[in-house]
Specification:
about 130 residues, alpha+beta, six-stranded mixed β-sheet, 4 helices
Length: about 130
């Protein structure tokens, strides 16, 4: 069975984020993208437009001492892609490992809207409460 085109888009986006490759992300993310970051974190909220999303993605890594994300799975359909990943975070001597989901709505080969969600929102809230 051939790889779904949205799976390839997700993998390309994952690789671009890992390399801080804004140019490639600019080809994958729609100019008017809306990114919904859920969970009780310093970067929670809606990020509107490509520049705001690129800034958000940069800030995620800047606010932590260690941010190591490992891709677990990619699931795709004609209009959506779901990325499942594990993240290890260290901040001010504290450590946490957590599963995350990224769901993207794809139109015309570009991500138009994205939602991120931690699999254990309570653990995430406790980590950032200190």
């Amino acid at each position: 069975m051939a790889e779904h085109s949205n799976t390839a888009i997700a993998q390309l986006a994952w690789d671009a984020v890992s390399r801080s490759d804004g140019e490639t992300l600019g080809q994958i993310l729609a100019p008017d993208i809306v990114w919904h970051a859920t969970g009780n974190t310093p970067w929670r909220g809606d990020h509107n437009g490509l520049d705001a999303v690129l800034d958000y993605l940069a800030r995620v890594g800047e606010l932590t001492d260690v941010f190591d994300a490992r891709l677990t799975d990619v699931l795709a359909s004609e209009s959506r892609v779901l990325i499942v990943f594990q993240v290890k975070v260290e901040h001010t001597g504290r450590k946490m490992e957590l599963g995350y989901l990224v769901l993207a709505r794809i139109e015309d080969g570009r991500a138009r809207e994205v939602w991120t969600s931690p699999l254990d929102p309570d653990a995430l809230a406790r980590f950032w409460a200190h």
